[in-house]
User: What shape does this take?
Amino acid sequence: MPGSTINRPMPSAAARYADSLRLSVAPMMDWTDRHCRVFHRLLAPGARLYTEMVHANAVIHGDRERLIGFDAVEHPLALQLGGSDPALLAQAARIAADWGYDEINLNCGCPSDRVQAGRFGACLMREPELVGECVAAMVAAVDIPVTVKCRLGVDEDNDYDVFAAFVDRQVAAGAAMVVVHARNAWLKGLSPKENREVPPLRYDWAYRLKAERPALPVVINGGLASVEAVQAQAGKVDGVMLGRAAYHDPYLLHQLEAVQAGAPLRSRQALLRALRPYVEAQLARGLALKHITRHLLGLFHGQPGGRAFRQVLSEGAHRPGADWTLVEQALALTERDVDRSAA
Assistant: This one.
């Protein structure tokens, strides 16, 4: 079972999971790996974290420690699954529950060609009955919440009632919560990056869904990149899921945590130094520093010394033998530039 390398008191997993609905970090392919998630957990102790999407077949047949392994400090933690075979998804969900995950999330929002070819992701929004069968199979297989992340529709779909009916079908199958990426997904003509930016945001659909179904937990995702934008969602939905903004400007997570928890802000330097025990434990196991520092580059986004911080880590972390002293060198540049700007 996963073990923790960061020592601090931890509330029960159930309590942390329930409270984490307000703020979560989206599953992001190639980004939200276990090292990224441990870093995000330090920034936002109360947030809900999600893995990268993992296909059910990979969970069943692949290297599970590499694909779904995690550090215990990451709780509350959800595994996002891809797939459209109810039996395979149920089997993968059972494995994830045995590993200690707190939630299983089904991806019904990814628009990439590879995902479409495998008949999962956003194209499943046009097969609500099949998705319902998948959700029901997973719900029957595990005792942890099964949730769905979806778009508003696909391509030129522009009917709120169709979107609401899709959600209702999944809730009827046992889905405990829905995450709404408040854009359509275009399956042809747009890249995955363009699909996160070009289709217009329609938060009002998520607001209406919540207003009409007050007992259904609804989390909103898409285009939220500031404390003010997140605060504007209060009272309209149950929570906010941040994606690229949390990765490119991770201190935003800490700012939101401080606002929501009424806690004082910690400096970026102090937060990063709290990661040292984890980094050194991973290096002792043979991990190259670059696999962790790639997730740290945005910590000083827009701050004095931020560019120098990124440059030192980017150029040095790939070198053999790179260790924590490189991180301290990068931090020293930020502290020097802060002193200069205050002079």
In short: The two ends are 50 Å apart (CA to CA).
